[in-house]
């Protein structure tokens, strides 16, 4: 019988630790498949900082760096400057990228750092057990916003793709979601595009991926997907926010 | 070889390049800004990389990234900036990444002053970041000594797989002295010598050789095994890497202890007091971690030694190690100021005379 599908060898055989219904597994696979299809022959390094994906070094089958909370873009900068011919990607959550690591991500974009960032936005701190993130929606209940996020008290959710698109030397910024098959396919295309731009020596690229956290949202995996569609996508519209390489 | 008159910060930067450093990540802060300035011009000349980070936090994490590829990497800062680097230093220590960090110390705490100080001794040798770690820590007393230490600093960092810290007071960076600059070392990353570094592993290669630069061990038994490895390295360094200088201690009645440029002031005092017939000597740790406890104990343990005077530009930080070394065997006195006030020879002489009156 013909083989129609195989697990990419850019993922190890280690079983994911992610909760049932969490989208990290899908996004890991998309990243690994995109890397695999580019035939990089070992010239790839990933950086995963603190957050649910901190153990990504166990899953991505390439040289991997674990980084301090928020610092992955700085670590990736050091790697890329030392090994300019290597594809360097960061894999960061929203607590990491949109809060403690804002300086590092903004300045990686500002320098036009030739790295690719996969930004997984699930509107909550997952690893520490469901606290309010800068991306948490207005009214969303978390363990540190028990009455729902109050804009008057702690501001409105931050929109990182829009923000980084405004940085002069960012090159390609797209927001995707993995809530259905069509969007999963789009997400993989975006990730691959970001990697291809890096291989062409273009500047900073980021793919934001809206993702569910059923455990900390207190929803079933199916309900979580619906919640993402009804609440996150309207506030965080999908689409290309910047593409300097787009043919006019 | 001819001597060249050089400013300390520039000489140290040039020595780092001669020792094979090709990556510098930093951020401006007085009194060490001449180091990034020098590096920004010099690194491109040798095919290296100077990059100005957005903060000291980012700079040390860039060091973490580049060091993880096996490159020789250096960063510099001054006290408040080095405080910001502590997170990354702890991660470098945990992930066993060799690198060199320069602290050109200024007054503290907080914003303190921009004048030279020795106020970061605790931070340097007692662990400024979280967790059980140490760094090989050198306190040069002259520009030439800083150059000489730099020439082996990367070798030591790589041998022990740990960060190396220079605790240089601002005077070392800001003064000029005639120096002899060593020849350039040719350094290339050798994956055989650095099997832990990210040098291009691919699926199908030996899984054990995949680079995982990491300080996280969520299983406590695994963390314990990892820290055992770190501690074994520290034990080895304690055995091999103590460095100190004694000056006229053989017949001394009073032994001065001091590090960095303060030791040079103390050395002058030794000669001045001896001209007056008072037998004073100096014990100067060159490496302040690992601290030369036994050599100091042996020096002070000589029957003729009646007292010890520790002199620092802080409120008595190395003093704690001096007391640990001497362990009550002889009285230990202290003279020092925080606030970047360097002691004069006259002040130290007067303190010695005061101690001598008590004999």
Describe the structure.
The complex is a heterodimer of chains A (248) and B (359). Chain A is 36% helix and 18% strand. Chain A is α/β, with parallel strands linked by helices and 248 residues long. Chain A has one domain (24-243): Thiamin diphosphate (ThDP)-binding fold, Pyr/PP domains (Rossmann fold). Chain A has a seven-stranded mixed β-sheet, with helices on both faces. In chain A, helix 1 (24-37) crosses helix 7. The model of chain A has no long low-confidence stretch (mean pLDDT 97). In chain B, the strands form three sheets. In chain B, strands 3-2-4-5-7-6-13 form a seven-stranded mixed β-sheet, sandwiched between helices. Chain B has a five-stranded mixed β-sheet with strand order 10-12-11-14-15, with helices on both faces. Chain B has twelve helices and 15 strands. Chain B has two domains: 4-179, Rossmann fold (3-Layer(aba) Sandwich); 245-357, Rossmann fold. The model of chain B has no long low-confidence stretch (mean pLDDT 97). Chain B has helices at 8-18, 34-45, 56-67, 79-94, 121-125, 143-160, 170-174, 220-240, 261-275, 293-301, 318-326, 345-357, and strands spanning 4-7, 23-26, 49-52, 73-77, 99-105, 136-138, 163-169, 176-179, 212-213, 244-247, 254-257, 280-285, 287-289, 307-312, 332-336. The interface between A and B is large, with 37 and 41 residues.
Strand order of the largest sheet of chain A: 2-1-3-4-6-5-7
Number of structural units classed as domains of chain B: 2
Residue share in β-strands of chain B: 15-25%
The poorly predicted ranges of chain B are none
CATH C-level class of the largest domain in chain B is Alpha Beta
Number of helices of chain B: 12
Structural class per helix/strand content of chain A? Answer: alpha/beta
Give the averaged pLDDT of chain A, no decimals. Answer: 97
CATH H-level superfamily title of chain A? Thiamin diphosphate (ThDP)-binding fold, Pyr/PP domains
Radius of gyration of chain B, whole Å: 21 Å
